[in-house]
Design brief:
286 residues
Length: 286
């Protein structure tokens, strides 16, 4: 069996590396295709990439969810087919590691088989895990930058700038994904798209609730002729308060999260310190 693995493991490594490298080739982002459509006034054509068969790894519902997750993560140049490639490559890497474990570990066959299955599944799920982490990181960055961006917009509107000019000026106060989405929205507005529609599309791409609420409030205030600066101030205060509440919630969960590290890390050491001396004295006096 180990002799067979000697040939299988390099083949798995080469195939997984090739598929992963193929998945890193950037494709044309949906937003770029949308800008091209706005410039040429033509409809956006559906992607007919040669990698499309890899999308069959996912079900129809999962494929739609995956497309939305890729947009929320900001991975505009990664298609679902490329994610399928990464899943296949991750499965190959997991299987390769599992075969290495099978080769060098000498444990019970049942436990070894379970370990091999778990490692293979972990390798297949790792691209999806990285995607979910990218979504959470991006949403957290947007939530962190949103209050300062709204405060800057409020100041520039009060100074007499129009809303588009205020966004263009305040975008420097929002580095990271929020600034990128605002710049994309401004690019769409300059190409002729309506401001409300462009901002709503930016909020939908991020999937961040506070950003969606802010865009909705700005749009409604503009339609109703309300005081934009006052609305911006209130929305900024709400976003900042919500961020404080999330921090307090995370702090409240820390004692619960510390239970397992204490149970498996600190308590055994305490038992060794307390009872180790007694056991050592007992054997020393015999």
């Amino acid at each position: 069996m180990p002799t067979a693995f000697t040939f299988i493991i390099p083949i798995l490594f080469g195939a997984s590396a090739f598929l992963f490298a193929l998945s890193l080739i950037p494709s044309k982002s949906p937003f770029s295709r949308q800008l091209d459509a706005l410039k040429s006034r033509e409809a956006i054509e559906r992607d007919t990439s040669k990698l499309a068969p890899f999308e069959r790894i996912f079900s129809a519902d999962r494929l739609g969810l995956l497309r939305r997750q890729l947009v929320e993560a900001g991975w505009y140049t990664v298609s679902p087919a490329q994610m399928g490639l990464r899943v296949v490559a991750g499965t190959g890497v997991g299987l390769m590691v599992a075969l290495l474990v099978w080769t060098f570990l000498h444990i019970a066959p049942i436990l070894l088989l379970i370990l091999v299955i778990l490692i293979t599944i972990a390798g297949a799920y790792s691209p999806i895990f990285m995607l979910n982490q990218a979504i959470e990181t991006r949403k957290a960055a947007i939530q962190k930058a949103l209050p300062d961006f709204l405060d800057m917009m409020c100041s520039t509107v009060q100074a007499g700038l129009a809303l588009n000019a205020a966004m263009a000026y305040a975008v420097d106060a929002a580095p990271g994904p929020l600034g990128d989405e605002i710049k994309e929205a401004l690019s769409q507005i300059r190409l002729g798209r309506g401001r409300a529609e462009a901002l709503k599309a930016a909020a939908d791409r991020t999937g961040q609730q506070e950003f969606k609420t802010a865009i909705m409030a700005i749009t409604q205030a503009e339609k109703l002729g309300s005081n934009i600066s006052k609305v911006l101030t209130e929305v900024a205060d709400d976003a900042r308060q919500h961020r404080v509440m999330l921090i307090e919630e995370m702090a409240a969960k820390l004692p619960v999260k510390m239970v397992f590290p204490m149970a498996f890390g600190m308590l055994p050491m305490l038992f060794v310190i307390i009872f180790g001396t007694l056991i050592a004295n007992y054997f020393a006096t015999r």
